[in-house]
Predict the structure of D-malate dehydrogenase [decarboxylating].
Amino acid sequence: ARRHRIAVIPGDGIGKETTPEGLRVLDAAARRFGFELELTHLDWSCETYARTGKMMPDDGLERLRAHDSVFLGAVGWPGVPDNVSLWGLLIPMRRDFDQYISLRPCRLMPGVRSPLANRGPEDIDFVVVRENTEGEYSSSGGRMFRGTAREFVTQESVFTRQGCDRVMKYAFELAMKRPRKKLTSATKSNGITFTMPFWDERFAEMAKGYPEISTDQFHIDILCAHFVQHPDWFDVVVASNLFGDILSDLGPAVAGSIGIAPSANINPEREHPSMFEPVHGSAPDIAGKGIANPIAQIWSGALMLEHLGEAEAAAAVTGAIESLLAEGGPRTRDLGGNAGTADVGKALAEVV
Amino acid sequence: ARRHRIAVIPGDGIGKETTPEGLRVLDAAARRFGFELELTHLDWSCETYARTGKMMPDDGLERLRAHDSVFLGAVGWPGVPDNVSLWGLLIPMRRDFDQYISLRPCRLMPGVRSPLANRGPEDIDFVVVRENTEGEYSSSGGRMFRGTAREFVTQESVFTRQGCDRVMKYAFELAMKRPRKKLTSATKSNGITFTMPFWDERFAEMAKGYPEISTDQFHIDILCAHFVQHPDWFDVVVASNLFGDILSDLGPAVAGSIGIAPSANINPEREHPSMFEPVHGSAPDIAGKGIANPIAQIWSGALMLEHLGEAEAAAAVTGAIESLLAEGGPRTRDLGGNAGTADVGKALAEVV
Ligand SMILES: CC(C)[C@H](C(=O)O)[C@@H](O)C(=O)O
Ligand SMILES: CC(C)[C@H](C(=O)O)[C@@H](O)C(=O)O
């Protein structure tokens, strides 16, 4: 049988509750579609940090390298500074494994209520392709005159031609596979005048190779407004690290729940493991109660299956999610129900 | 009579149509409340640029200095690069006149339909206080290896203690004057790890001086989501230049129309003129047709009156806008009506 090696990192907070449900559904899919998942469970988290002073062992990334993919819950916990937790586990994976594509589908699922008036599933179905390794999330910056009146900090955004071109190429190729063949670029070249005009240049250059794709671009401010006023305008949206981060939280909010939104951190060349995680975080406010929505995690599992070449199984999982939501199956609080995390996971595992 | 010297710059596109309506209403308010407006009309625009190679004369800023305020329409036109038009007229005003506060009220007005389901005027009534001179809109950056595979660009965000403190102080003081006494800070310290943690530090420090204010902070991604899912949570929101830009387009979108949203670019010390402009731009797609919504411009005029010490007149103008919208007066297309720009201006001038 086909065999895939998966590193599982539940991480913190609700990640510890949603990951088991993700695995439950993946396991069901593996049995039904005849492949094997070889799982390595890793407890790397803010608790590890409290115990050992590190989010992961020194050879953490090396150990992950032996796997096809990483299936991640959530990283971060109050009391542990983000620059320790996120920059000690999440960001190094994205960056060291050159997962330069962050793929974030936003769909209003049948049976889910959008906060927008008069919008149905046909109105909200787009994908945000986020650059995931450079841009505004940079390691270059500093602070001067600490503690004095003239104190200041700087941080340098960095956009490379290679970095822009490869994410844009991916986005154009993705748009080619979708019926609407439409690609929107998020920019802010009227205000951020060194980096963003370059982004626009590279986008225009790449567009020349894809005459079938209809393109447009909006400044991030008005683009956010359009997500609310005209979500139906969008098909594939390509964006820098920061703008992609913003759009891929706003998109799911417009589509009804962040508890549903999945993400894939992909190294398309498969030189390194890719990583699959929900868009939501560790949600300390509801952690430990068994009430978190596991759908984002399970849908992230579907994206992982697709990446692993198990397209049929992937489709079965997303199909199961659609049916459950459309047909009034168990739903968690964020969707107006009162089911627990495991109820949803079990229901999905049964029908996958 | 009290006398205020106003420089009027209609600028480009619909700015040329909305500014006259703004002046019509300001003029009515002046007559009713017994003050005088001494207007200097300036045709600085992208047309000036086409004619003279400059957006404004070399002594442009000096000439503006002789005025109490600038009343601006919109800047920018297709064919003229933004770094010429915006950075040749709009941004220099904000920066050279140290208009470090950009004040952007977001209200769902009675009689206006929000794109959000089941939201009324009581749910959406907040103010974005945007830092307007530094941060992500910086003049420091560059490009290397142009035209080669290793080409890259950089842009440095710069946050000074002085810059952070003064905008935060303004926001806290504003929150003190509002009944809910609530202030939210927009951050992204989990991803933008040099500048944003400093922003958070300064916010926490400033908060110590305002124990009556309840504060919270959200990362910009989830904050955008909350604007859609829980607009009622917000009272005053303080944000960096870029985040404030984003939130102050998203806020009005959530509140029904960007055609209504006003903005004030304020130098609180009054050492330099302040500037008042709609949030919307020159809107080339509808320019010249007489159908643009003048309310954002007129409301910006009300913010100007307030700044000039004409609080009663300011309240009369916003009151007139509220009544017009609530009572089904003439409205432009963006609000579902078919009135022209001048119809709305005239109706407001009559009742102010
Ligand atoms: C035109 C542009 C430079 C400007 C900005 O980003 O500040 C506009 O979007 C605004 O909000 O006033
Ligand atoms: C946790 C944080 C660093 C992360 C990001 O900004 O990338 C998160 O918001 C996301 O979108 O995955």
Summary: The domain at 114-255 of chain B is CATH 3.40.718.10 (Isopropylmalate Dehydrogenase). The two ends of chain B are 19 Å apart (CA to CA).
